Records
---
Amino acid sequence: MSIFKNKKSFEELPTHIAIIMDGNGRWAKKRSLPRTAGHAAGSKNFKEIARYANKIGLKYLTVYAFSTENWKRPKDEVDNIMNILRDYLKDAKNFKDENIRVKFIGDIDALDEDIRLLIDDAEKESENATGLKLNIALNYGGRDEIVHAVKKIVESGIPADMINEDTIGNNLYTAGMPDPDFIIRPSGEYRLSNYLIWQSAYAEYWFSDILWPDFRPKHLDMAIEDYLKRNRRYGGI
């Protein structure tokens, strides 16, 4: 049972949670399984957490699915991740039925054409959903995103003395969205790994040793419960 049913009101939820879905490979290794099994388990768990986030009334959820650095992994592992992505996209209509709006952020143009077409279909199919706004960071890197934003600003011809933080923010992949209030990273790692580095300037963090395929709704509850105890001062007193 969710903590929010009896203890917390939905209004107290952070507006935007971002998750680094980490630990799939280690999860598989612990079970003497191939890394591909870990990615399959992680993908299944992502769907469960996304649906739960929608159920409890979260407005925005952004998940780190594949980074610009992940191309360095063995080709067969990358190919497997892309095939899992294809399967998810073909099944994305289920998120539409659950009133979840899906958006992909990152350098989508670098992906195979069939994946780009599936992404376009998934976004269009869910564009009228009014529940959870689910952002999937795919071929995403925080530094790459800032470079991409700067190039857009230069190409638009905005004079240097007219550029401010809003100008940058309005040209990021997340333009029009609130910055994440809370970033969760399971798996025992304690770093941001080039994820939402502009947007996370004032985010709160929650780390745990739980590997992503083992991360359950009860763990999301625990993380949010911890978040609600914190005092966010944004540089003030």
---
Amino acid sequence: MLNGKKIVVVMPAYNAERTLQRTYEEIPHDIVDEVILVDDKSVDSTAKVSKSLGIITIVHTENLGYGGNQKTCYKTALEKGADIVIMLHPDYQYTPKLIVSMASLISEDLFDCVLGSRILGEGALKGGMPIYKYIANRILTLYQNILIRHKLSEYHTGYRAFSKKVLETLPLEQNSNDFIFDNQMLLQILYANFTIGEITCPTLYFKDASSINLLRASKYGLEVIWTTLKYVLHRWHIWYCPLFQPLDDRVKKD
């Protein structure tokens, strides 16, 4: 715990048997109360390794996708009484050593959400991010910052920490089960006027680290563009989008 708040790490997993133990061992267990892994019907021994490490393990009977996996992660964390939830990929692309810093910023009530940014500093390219992904990240982030009128270093990191209030407020079931879930969730956080902090996050790109191919990445990019347009249209009451409509009452109150 930190400041009396229960901290739960959730790991959405798919075929992570080779990197899971290394990731788990670097989690700061002195402050983390529980670790939950949701196995999205892997074809390897991810679930077996997870259980052997003593991790709370949930196995999907069918593959729901990256977003569908996260929905189970957050629902389970809240059921376990989490006050702060950190989403950590079990592929060791993001270092678990930042969990203390990320959780501290929320436990001190400085931010509602904290992102581990690969773009702040030189973490992305130095860690091996493909140049085409780096350029796409910068273009999409600029596009979103301009339209949303916010300023983040990136909208596409998979390393995130949330307060309990954020997860209880957002209509996550409205979101996609695919990779665009991350971006939809972030735009919902901004729409609901929650605060977001960022810290520099070194990352590693290597053979066993998960990564989507060029086709899936292109699809994701197009979905980011469309999701951002829906955000703007809904914000200006031009076209109502179910991703944000459940949050309208909260926006009016704030």
---
Amino acid sequence: MALKKFKATSPGVRHAVLIDRSELSKGRPYLALTEKLKANAGRNNQGKITMRHQGGGEKKLYRKIDFKREKYGVEGVVETIEYDPNRTAFIALVKYLDGERRYILAPDGLKVGHKVVSGPNSPIKVGNALMLKDIPQGTMVHAVEMFPTKGAMIARSAGTAIQVMGGDKGYVQLKMPSGEFRLVKETCYATVGTVSNTDNKNVKFGKAGRRRRKGIRPSVRGVAMSTKHPHGGGQGKGGRHGTGGPKKDRWGNPVGKRTRKLRNTNNKFIIKRRPEKNKFKSYKTVI
């Protein structure tokens, strides 16, 4: 899917870069596979804000996606490629030979009229779902299960893909988009191909109103706040943040510090952690 730019007829479109969705199917979603989606504006069941900068935005219907791909051996035809407001990737409506319809994540290159199938003995073709043990080494996959029959959990956002590196002793080694290498059981299912909408990372909204319609409210920089924020205070850019030291959130907690539990049960499946680009460093106060 291509990007589209605009003539600078107004400040709102001068720097805007958006996705050209002209190739997507028009019309409403398949209503039998949708349900209401309640907007919580970042609040919990007590009405307290637990996630800042959320609220407003357009009403959305949730599209039920088939992450398990459990119609084994039943061929389906892609009827539509649609926009989904709940995720960065596009989705595809598949009609199977028995008449049932399901939404799946649309891989890059999947078109209306293409045929997809899941299960053992399926061909290695974009959109088909197979067990990891049946996928050749070096193949790019997405929508990968971490546990058998649990449904796809990793590589589901726009433009992501995981490389199959080979397997042994009931496990298959995967190279994650972050550079991490991990083991997953060979009976887990994955879909061949890269997730659609690969240009999503290049989008520039161009104006605040476009973000507001997505339910994103304004956020204020810490350096523009008073001394109540660790970065605030001072005149102009002469706040406390400019004196050095680690970045902190408004409650004084270090930003960028690893929060993964040391005793996470999945740690044993990680062969190599991702490269540490922004590793948290502790600073000592110089007296």
